[in-house]
Amino acid sequence: MPELFCGFEKRPDEGPTLYPVACSPQAWAAASVFYLMQACLGLSFDPHNRQILFKHPQLPDFLQSVDIRGLPVGSSTVDLSLQRYPNNVGINIVRKDGDIHVVTTS
Hints:
The chain is mostly beta strands. It has one domain: Maltose phosphorylase, domain 3. The chain has one helix at 27-41; strands at 43-46, 51-55, 65-73, 76-84, 89-97, 101-105. The strands form two sheets. A three-stranded mixed sheet has the order 1-2-6. The termini are far apart. It comes from Ricinus communis.
């Protein structure tokens, strides 16, 4: 199924009108899952202070855990494991390379 549809009328006895970019991956569609995760986790960055910030992180009921590997801030990277609990989300720093801080507010 194409990710993008054009507004041309359907012709009788024909399939959808060809649209050259309809089957090309669209950046907004490919990135949407990451924007949803960013919104759920309240994820933001403060590169000047080398911080990864989580403000009131939440995971949906169907998602028990999330692993984030190689998350960069400046020249540092971090691997995180997030676990959903009944009233909050726990964040565990699995690996840290460089001077980077993970800050959580709930």
